[in-house]
Amino acid sequence: MRAVRIAALLLLAGGPAAGADYTPGRPVEEHAGARLDYALKCKGCHGLWGQGTPGHVPRLDGFVGLFTHLPEGRDYLMRVPGVARSVLDDVRLTAVLNWMIETYGREQVAPGFAPFTVAEVAAARLRPLEDRKGLRERMLAALRAKGLLAPGDDGIGSSPELRERSGG
Amino acid sequence: MTILDAFDRMMEHTARRIAQRSSRRGVLARLGGALVGGAVLPLLPVDKTGAKLAHANEFAKTAQTTDPTKCNYWRHCSSDGYLCSCCGGTVNVCPPGSYASPTAWIGTCVNPDDGQAYLIAYQDCCGKDSCGMCFCLGTEGEMPSYRPELNNDIIWCFGAPSMVYHCSSQVLIGKA
Fold first, then answer.
1. What ipTM was predicted for this assembly?
2. Of B91, B156, B163, the CB nearest to A161
3. Among candidate residues A32, A33, A48, A31, the one with its CA nearest the CA of residue A92
4. Which of A99, A111, A114, B15 is most buried, most CB within 10 Å of its CB?
């Protein structure tokens, strides 16, 4: 009888599939649509929770929405290399961009910001950013001037190996 | 009171409610409907996952789910390098003395036990010399290195304390 009860408990728990390694004890989360595309194409570097990779890849969570406060920010988000060069087609890429703003930028997004449209994403990704780094630095300075970004925050931080090299 | 006692009470309560509210014929009719419906549903022309999953299915045809130290273990469908499972670690734990990279490339593998596609993060363990054990080359869904975010020849140690590659782990991060 005990064995039957335990078997029933296991069935309720969702079958024999392996558990989610990053979230022990919680069910394996279903991914579909834009969330699945984000997971397969972006998550490896921008992080499972949009936290980024210190020293290499900017965090999205609590950061990406800030760009919507700047006139050139909307254009930047569609043209930044990871977006413009994606293997996703225009429709799926647009869905990922909107999912990203909704998921990781909800708290920071500018009032009245309109979702990205397929037509504008299709056009923007064909125009490569010529000075990505310079444009990004100018935008971060503008965000700091508006009081939206802390002075020492560039969204990237520094990685452990860089700290090692500099002796700290 | 144990959780099993609580479970017993819940099951009993549920069974009594069903018994009170339904007739046996009704249950049989619905059960019959479910069986017929279940047989018809798989025939419907629904493309659930697209071409990528078709690739992952190829690997799954000969994959097994019991021995992670073999190249045909289901999670290794896109694993390129030494298996951490052979190096003192597991599919999701780096061997002692190495660091889990915060970056990874993410692929899809089908578990042949349930036929379901899962998202696997191919996360390298870094900061220790090459392990040299159990080299496997899975290439499902992989792309050339000019698509670095989808390439597995690259040493995925960006952001780890050291770029020295030790082995590859295969962390399950979700269902596709």
1. 0.73
2. B163
3. A33
4. A99
Contact yes or no for B4 and A56 at CB 8 A: no
Q: B90 touching A, CB under 8 A?
A: no
A28 token code pair? 């394996």
Predicted TM-score (pTM) of the model is 0.72
The string of pLDDT tens digits covering residues B56-69 is 678 999 999 999 99
Report d(CA B99, CA B95) in Å as an integer.
Answer: 8
Greatest alpha-carbon pair distance for chain A in Å reads 70
Residue in B closest to A58 by C-alpha: B159
Which candidate in B8, B105, B113, B156 is catalytic? Answer: B105
Burial of A81 (0-12, 13-18, 19+ CB in 10 A): exposed
* Residue A158: count of CB within 10 angstroms of its CB: 13
Q: Which residue has the tokens 């915060």?
A: B102
Q: A113 with A101: CB under 8 angstroms?
A: yes
Taking each helix axis from N to C terminus, what angle separates A2-13 and B3-21, rounded to the nearest 10 degrees?
80
Q: How many CB atoms lie within 10 A of CB A48?
A: 17
Residue B147 distance to chain A (closest CA, Å)? 9
